[in-house]
Each structure stands twice: as structure tokens, then as C-alpha cells.
């Protein structure tokens, strides 16, 4: 496994290989990342994992400082996973003196949910760093987790708009046995908060079950969901029912709907989401007449 | 010569050729463009000329509507010049429904001169379209005229920041026999205004001569320059003396200095510039003691 610290080194190592799979990460690798790496390993001759805690996407300096980092362990995990190249640049390599360029996705994809909660700079940071990683690596495909559903939409929009020649592959959210979505931030949860955090996936499970049983009014679904959170003394930063491609709010779950939430558990901000599917009966209710 | 109307067609025609030279244009080709094409023709196996009147860099709809277009003539000229591929997309191909991405260069490179005069959207439009053209064409080098000196700096900054693997080549401003910088907009000058427009290069020539004769105070040089313009009843939108790489204003021409101006002649807005060089004696005046 090679370790590249600069874009020049990365390009030298890859020397234009046309079959590269990229897994962009901020390090602190866990089973979720490893599942992305396995997908890439199955599909490509060369697998690159980038490890870069991107300062520009953190609105909150405390969150940036607290973000877990353990490069030695990350390198062990990538080596064991059969990764060919780790790209681990410094912030100075990515943003040298005089750096002045931002890649911005405007509109509803970035204004709501995480964009509202973390500030518009968050997705500017994400779009810019992903564009830079894709340009530096020139992969055939890049792998992202569905856990960051909005990030995935923003990246897809940016890639389509700039016509970057790469497939963006969405991979299912990886979960612990109790349902909690895997996240590098989970290690910062106290034991008690780790227990309360289970209410986050339980909220999504309860909402999915309610939809399966025929509930489709969003006000009703939201009230039930808040009860599950409240039982764990949690209050969401947002709990959204939105169209999965545009993020426009919906009032009834009569078509596949993204249910997404952000919750602070102690001082750790968790996000999670699922797609609610009301089934074919709800897709065109007006035409059901038997 | 092949004509590609879509990015997909362009990529199919180029099929990853590693030695492409790109000359980005807005059409209405003149000798200035042809000089760029000759530079590219001498250096590359494949020469691509893009022809796209980019709507997003025009703040002024009237200017966009009035911008000269003659594709049939452009294609004759490119064919005669030995161009291999013309990329002439529609606005819809470049900016389809839902397009939401902007590449922005912030700071002094875009805030002053043309950025102040034409609004910040101008360089957003330039940086975004050039990024898209470079990503679509993947050239080894791209050729730009020094006439648009600020645009050249913005493009260089964007390319460096995104690490696009392309050389940006600056080519000297091409001029008519009377000194007027060649521009597609010149055809819109009335006969009388064409005569007055000669004051624009004469202003730069007079300033260059004054510097050669030892003048270096910018207030003094500006006053002399304004006299030349005033004699033709012209008043500049800006007349700037700035550091050539940062565009920071200077008060004395003691090192190479970009002198740039924008002037409306009738309803045609012209720009021009030159680099004033005070010579080695001025580069470090404090050390001259003989």
C-alpha cells in the first residue's frame, strides 16, 4: 500500500490508471467505511482511500478539534482491507496560501436540513473538497454512504453540473447491532448517551412501521416520531419528511419519502435517515377504485 | 474537422487523447483568436476550439444580445486554421434544468476592475464555464489572450486551486495596425467611434513612454493618461495601476505594473492593458548609491 501526501505524489502513483475506485473519508475509519472499501475493492483494479479531515466543512471549530483522528490505526485498517493507495494530504497541501476558490451548489439541496443547521459554508466545504479529490484522483467511481443522504445529493449535483467523468455510488448505511448508524463521532458518546442514541434509529424504525401500517399524514408521523425521541429525552434539531431527490417537504407519504433527522445527544450531533416507501397502493391513490 | 455539440460527443471524438490544446472562445473569431489557435496548432497533436457565448458571464442582457455571432464564418476560419475539433454546445447543454453549481474565485482578483464594473457574477460565470470546458476537454494546455489580463489571473487561480492538470498559456494581445486591441466587440463600433477608440491604446503607449522617460508617480501617470483619453472625449470606467499578480493598487511604478483600463466608446465597452516596466534601475532603488 502506498501513501501519497501530495496531489503530485498521488498522480505519480496512479499514473493515469483508468480503473480507480475512490473512497473519500475523514479518517477515524469504522465498519461503515470498510463496507465502502469492499464495494470499491470488488469493482476496481486500483482502490484509493482519501483521509482528510476537511476544515472548511466544519462551521464549528470545537467540532473540528474534537473530530477523532488516528492515522496509524486507519492505515492498518486500509492495509488489511487491500487498499492500494491512501491519499492523506495536509490542510496546507489542499488549501495553500492564496487559495481562493469555492465550488458551491446553490438552492434547496444545500439550504435546508444540514445546510440550515450547520450553515451554508458546510456544503461549500463539502462540494469544494470533493471536487478537488475527484480531480486529483480521476477515479472511475467514488463511493459514499447513504447515511449522509443530503451530502450525496449535493455531490451528485456538483458532479453532474461540472460534468466530472465519475460514477457516484451510494452505499447503504452501515449500522451497529442495535441499529445505530456507524459514525466516527459515535466514539465520543458517553455510555449513557450511547444508550439514548438508540432512540435515533428506533424513531426511523417506528416511522417505517407506521407507514407500513397505512399512516401517511406527515403531521401524524412526526408526532409519533417525536414521542420516541422524547422518551429518550431527545429533541431533534430537525426531523424532515422530504422528496428524496429535491429535498422538498412533503405533507403526505404517498411516494418514496426521505425521513431525515439530526439530534444532539450530549455534545455529539448525530444524523440518520431512511426512505419511507408507502408501497404501490399509495403511489397513485386516485386511480384505486376496486 | 469535427463539430461536437455535447460533452459526450466531444469526449467520444477525443477518446482521452493526452495531447489536446484548447482555445476557449465566444466565437466571432478574429485574428486574435487565430493567433491563439496557431500557438496551439504548433504545440499539440489535437486542437480543440470551443465556441460558446456564455450567458452567465454577462451581467447585462443587452450586451449578451448584442454580442456578435456568426457560426458559419467561425467554422470556415477554424477549418482553414487546421483546427481538429470545434466544441459548440448549446446553453442548455452547458446549463441544463436544475443546474446549481458555481465555481467562485473570491478576493481581490475578482472584486476589482472588471469585477467591480461588471458585477461579481461576471467572474463567477467565467470561472464556472472555464472549469466546465477544461473538465470536458481535459486538455494538456489552454490558451488565453493577455488582453483579458484579469480573466487570465482568475483562471490561473481557479486551475491552481482545483489542481486541474492543465497548463494555462498566456498569449500577447493581438492588435490592429493602429494599435486597437482586437475584440469581437470592435465590429459594433461606428466609424467615428472606431477613430476615437484609438485613444485607448494611445493612452497605454503614452504611459509606457512616460515610464521609459523616468516618470513613476501613479497620480502623475494617471493625469497624463486621462488627458489622452479626454482629447478623444473619453472617460474611463477605470484606469488602474496594479501589481500584475495580485491586482493590488500601486502608488509608484517601481516594479512591473499592470496598467489596465475600461472605456465605453459609444455603447461599446472596450478594455485594454499593458505591463509597465520601469527597468532594473527602479526595481530596488534603495540600493542604487553611485
TrEMBL record, chains A, B:
Signal peptide: none
One Gene Ontology molecular-function label: pantoate-beta-alanine ligase activity
InterPro entries: Pantoate_ligase (IPR003721), Pantoate_ligase_C (IPR042176), Rossmann-like_a/b/a_fold (IPR014729)
Pathway entry: Cofactor biosynthesis; (R)-pantothenate biosynthesis; (R)-pantothenate from (R)-pantoate and beta-alanine: step 1/1
Annotated binding of beta-alanine, by residue: 57
Alphabetical list of HAMAP family matching this protein: PanC
Record text on subunit structure and interactions: Homodimer.
Protein name as it appears in the record: Pantothenate synthetase
Gene: panC
